[in-house]
Amino acid sequence: MQWEALTADDFGEAVKETGVCCLPLGVLERHGPHLPLGTDYLNVHKLCCQAAEKEPAVVFPPFYFGQIYEARCFPGAFTLRPRLLLELLRAVLDEIGRNGFKKIILVNGHGGNTHLLSFLTQCSLWEEKPYSVYMPKGRVSEERVEQWREILDTSLHAHACECESSITLANQPEMVRMDALGEDEVAEPLGRLDHLPPTQSGIAWYANYPEHYAGDARPATQAKGEKLVSLMVDTLAEYIAAVKADEVMPKLEREFFARERELREDN
């Protein structure tokens, strides 16, 4: 069920029926020479909608505000200052909770969001909320990883690569320009920071992939994408079902904040 497509009355019933809202998170950024700027948010929103058809949940409208500072040197990238971005995400969670959802699933469609969203989940321990936040790890479950690998012909998968291009061909074929790829259009990491010991830095992605393209998209096909999408949809549907059934996380959060309040009162 898509949030924006429901009437107000139907929305209220959906909250009672499911108790779960999926928040798909992507960005607007360059995806090599052949994929649309909205690849991440378009694909992750469709993933959530398809999974919610298998395991009923309400899917938040397309959302494209995330961490993508490493693409600011390319046309079309859309960024918000760090503090505003975090405040926006926390406010969105609060509004979803205010609308009655007790469980919110963050479904990440952009690798650059990983650290931001990990921090966002940790922020749930700053103050008690009437909802719990969940975030699955990985695109497919462990038992499906080998199936995923068998579908693909290349080994480097990072950005606008064979798998992401195939998925986009399956979801939005009219937006993909495979003819924009050159005959030798492969993007291996340049390793321009390899002189340093293992280092985390903001410029690391650009150092390896200055054209915001990583991998080899040439073997991508719609048929491969349909198989990959199926694996992801089944994985997410199972995750939604597990979150619905979960009673442990909310209980632990209540216990945690009860102890935190007791500590403050004692002091």
Helices, strands, pairings?
Layout lengths: L7 H11 L1 E6 L13 H16 L3 E2 L22 H17 L4 E6 L5 H9 L9 E3 L10 H7 L5 E3 L2 H10 L14 E2 L16 H5 L5 E3 L5 H24 L2 H19 L1
Parallel strand pairs: 1-2, 1-3, 3-4
Antiparallel strand pairs: 5-7, 6-7
Helix pairs in contact: 2-6, 2-8, 6-8
Q: Can you offer a commentary on this structure?
A:
- There is one protein chain.
- With 267 residues, the protein is α/β, with parallel strands linked by helices.
- It has a single domain, classed as Rossmann fold (3-Layer(aba) Sandwich).
- It contains nine helices and seven strands.
- The chain has helices at 8-18, 39-54, 82-98, 114-122, 145-151, 162-171, 204-208, 222-245, 248-266; strands spanning 20-25, 58-59, 103-108, 132-134, 157-159, 186-187, 214-216.
- The strands form two sheets. It has a four-stranded parallel β-sheet with strand order 2-1-3-4, sandwiched between helices. The protein has a three-stranded antiparallel β-sheet with strand order 5-7-6, with helices on one face.
- α4 links the parallel β3 and β4.
- α2 crosses α6 and α6 (162-171) crosses α8 (222-245).
- It is globular.
- The model has no long low-confidence stretch (mean pLDDT 96).
